[in-house]
Write a structure and sequence with these properties.
CATH class of chain A: Alpha Beta
Order of helices and strands of chain A: HHEHHEHEHEEEHEHEHHHH
Shape of chain A: globular
Structural class of chain B: alpha/beta
Order of helices and strands of chain B: EEHEHEHEHHEHEHEEEEHEHEHEHHH
Number of helices of chain B: 13
CATH superfamily of chain A: Thiamin diphosphate (ThDP)-binding fold, Pyr/PP domains
CATH topology of chain A: Rossmann fold
CATH architecture of chain A: 3-Layer(aba) Sandwich
CATH topology of the largest domain in chain B: Rossmann fold
CATH class of the largest domain in chain B: Alpha Beta
Number of helices of chain A: 12
Number of strands of chain B: 14
CATH superfamily of the largest domain in chain B: Thiamin diphosphate (ThDP)-binding fold, Pyr/PP domains
Strand order of the largest sheet of chain B: 4-3-5-6-8-7
Shape of chain B: globular
Oligomer: heterodimer
Distance between the termini of chain A: 58 Å
Helix content of chain B: 25-40%
Strand order of the largest sheet of chain A: 2-1-3-4-8-7
Helix content of chain A: 40-55%
Number of strands of chain A: 8
Chain lengths: 311, 377
């Protein structure tokens, strides 16, 4: 028996489900080799993207990572252009030069996704510096995983943002893993405490599966940044269902226990509201299939594209 | 006859009006040319910001940013934390959202800490996202030399960056080159540009071109001296050395050197190089860095690919010795090619014999010729 739900729940549920179904289609397509790109799936982490983007406008900028399907879609990136990009077609969001790892949709404020861990965090800070100096009234969000907090550039970015009181939100998706290494094997500090030591206002969300909670918390974070014009740090606990890269499950590989997955999925609304899933599924699947047809029907980039846009 | 005078002639840019006597030309130091372009960039474009360690201090990047923080504010002339990678990333993000950052590395060596951002990000942003982003920014890197700069304060890293598609790399060899390059780059070019400024040139005064060409492409190579006997392709301060060698040879032997300033080492104007080498049949390459896998190798590659038959003699490369830079002056003087070696190399290739019989200049340390600064940095 499913509980009665609010409109905002339904709205966010729809968006999260859309992302999951997009990625499940990618999983289905992957063995056919039409997608010749490493894919880092967001399944399990959709609620973070959906909740975080809920209160952002298309003027607000978000910088992301190679695991960015969820944020690309949540920020409003075009689904057809995403599939075309995965298919390596010239109609893709980067004309076939990005694949899965470098999605971008600047028209809706989804800035580039980078495949080098932590490398876009300072870009969010720099964009916030420009926003402040040019009086753009933007909020800038830098998204990264827990692994990124070990990189020097992460610390350099937090320090600079706090020092110059920049309108930037550091959003850490903590799934506890860097590829196959647990956080305990890598870090001798607590992420949120350490971030706070730079003088940033910090927020912690342990229910990363709950898009409404994430959205509510992010509203408060954004209010803080907009009113104080100072940066904030948000850590969201989340869970990666799939292997680091690729379409498969890897619970049998020994680096993590499947019981963690069972615990998490019991809390995952996308697995706890099957009737809602079924009511939304047809419309979403229709949209996805249309996007796949668009990708299939598009041309590969021609030879002129090879040396275009280098400088 | 050597160019050991207070004013270096209008090296670097071919004058539109060579008839104007040198005495009638304006003189500007390299440092003042830099300062002028930095100041005018800030004055003319609200988007311009200068970011670097110490850009607002009492030394102002060897004078090139002196007083600008006071004039334009410390939010536009920003001192930075010691965090090269992060701050390069900040500059990239600022460029993506409407600013034009000018970043400084008081030694090029320090930019190695920012290689991830420069190579993996700045150089890739436009292409990797299908042309949807632009990263307009200028990174100024200063190449140190003399007074014991040593292994980590002296590297001239142009070939590392020029190797990477997506970066434009320039090496202005005169005040005029600064004036003709930086304002255009800042105002018009929408991608990342790396410029190598040689420390020894900061203190030199240059004659300016009386009629500079306002339409000059800031990313081209050009001929700075005409000559029929040998082509010298040079970068940065080696252009000045090439001119000194050319003047000596012209005086003592009548050998006429054609000197090409490569200027934009990432995208040289190869037709200028090839036309000259095809005319003279002889090539000397003089670079401020190591020979191996560098500018010397690249120029030779292009000649070898396009028209190796035009060469009458094997090519000569003049570059640093294949070692880290030593600090003792006795060793440092051996580490860099000097004018005597330069003249000997050119004379040998023209005559076709190391026993060329042409008088060489007196042994003299190159830094003693150029140096008006005496340490510590």
């Amino acid at each position: 028996m499913e509980k009665s739900v609010t409109n905002i729940f339904k709205q966010l549920f729809y968006q999260a489900l859309r992302i999951r179904l997009v990625e499940e289609h990618i999983i289905d397509l992957y063995p056919s080799d039409v997608i010749q790109s490493p894919v880092h799936l967001s399944i399990g982490q959709e609620a973070v993207a959906v909740g975080a983007c809920q209160t952002l406008t298309s003027q607000d900028l978000l910088f992301s990572t190679y695991r960015s399907h969820a944020f690309y879609l949540a920020k409003g990136g075009n689904l057809k252009e995403m599939f075309a990009e995965l298919y390596g077609k010239v109609t893709g969001c980067a004309r076939g030069k990005a694949g899965s790892m470098h999605l971008a949709a600047p028209d809706v404020g989804f800035m580039g996704a980078s495949a080098v861990v932590a490398s876009t965090i300072p870009h969010a800070v720099g964009a916030a510096l420009a926003a402040k100096r040019l009086k753009k009234n933007q909020i800038i969000v830098g998204v990264f995983g827990d692994g990124a907090t070990e990189e020097g550039v992460y610390h350099e970015s937090l320090n600079f943002a706090a020092l110059h009181r920049l309108p930037v939100i550091f959003l850490c998706e903590n799934n506890g893993l860097a590829v196959h290494s647990s956080r305990q094997a890598r870090q001798n500090f607590e992420i949120i405490e350490h971030a706070g030591s730079y003088g940033l206002k910090t927020f912690h969300i342990s229910e990363g599966y709950d898009f409404v909670k994430v959205a509510d918390a992010m509203s408060e974070v954004i209010r803080h940044v907009r009113t104080t014009h100072t940066p904030a740090f948000v850590e969201v606990q989340t869970f990666r269902y799939k292997e680091h890269v690729g379409p498969g499950d890897d619970f049998s590989c020994g680096y993590r226990n499947i019981s963690e997955f069972h615990n998490w999925k019991d809390l995952d609304p996308l697995m706890q509201y099957p009737n809602l899933v079924e009511s939304f599924r047809p419309r979403i699947v229709e949209e996805i299939e249309e996007a796949i047809q668009f990708a299939k029907g598009s041309a590969f980039p021609s030879i002129e594209e090879l040396l275009c846009d280098v400088v | 006859m050597l160019c050991n005078t207070a004013v270096v002639t209008e090296l670097g840019f071919k004058s539109n009006n060579p008839d104007v006597a040198l005495s009638e030309r304006k003189v500007l130091s390299y440092r003042d040319a830099l300062h002028r372009t930095m100041r005018e960039g800030l004055r003319d474009q609200d988007a311009v910001v200068i970011m670097g360690q110490g850009v607002d201090d009492h030394k102002g990047i060897f004078g090139s940013t002196l007083g600008l923080a006071e004039e334009f504010g410390r939010d536009r002339v920003m001192d930075l934390p010691l965090a090269e990678e992060g701050m390069t990333g900040v500059a990239i993000g600022a460029a993506l959202n409407g600013l034009y950052p000018i970043q400084t590395h008081i030694r090029a060596d320090f930019s190695l800490l920012a290689m991830n951002q420069i190579i993996n990000l700045a150089a890739k942003y436009k292409y990797m996202f299908g042309g949807r982003f632009e990263v307009p920014m200028l990174i100024r890197m200063i190449v140190g030399r003399s007074w014991g700069q040593g292994a980590q304060h002296s590297q001239s890293l142009q070939s590392l960056f020029a190797h990477i598609p997506g970066l434009k790399v320039v090496m202005p060899s005169s005040s005029q080159a600064i004036l003709d390059t930086y304002p255009k780059v800042i105002a018009e070019y929408r991608g990342p540009v790396i410029s190598f400024e040689h420390r020894l040139m900061y203190d030199l005064n240059f004659h300016l071109d009386p009629l500079p060409n306002p339409d000059r492409d800031p990313f081209e190579s050009y001929t700075v001296r005409q000559g029929a006997d040998v082509t010298i392709v040079a970068t940065s301060i080696m252009v000045l050395e090439a001119m000194r060698a050319a003047e000596h040879l012209s005086t003592v032997s009548g050998i006429q050197c054609e000197v090409i300033d490569l200027h934009c080492v990432s995208n040289p104007t190869w037709d200028v190089v090839m036309q000259s080498v095809e005319k003279t049949g002889r090539l000397v390459v003089a670079d401020t860095s190591w020979r191996e896998y560098g500018v010397c190798a690249e120029v030779c590659r292009v000649v070898a690919e396009r028209n190796p038959a035009c060469l009458k003699n094997p090519v000569v490369s003049l570059a640093m010795q294949p070692a880290p830079c030593p600090t003792a002056k006795s060793l440092e003087d051996l580490f860099y090619p000097d004018l005597r070696q330069f003249v000997h190399a050119v004379a040998s290739i023209v005559i076709g014999d190391e026993k060329h019989g042409i008088a060489l200049p007196d042994m003299q340390s190159m830094v003693d010729v150029y140096k008006r600064f005496k340490g510590p940095f």
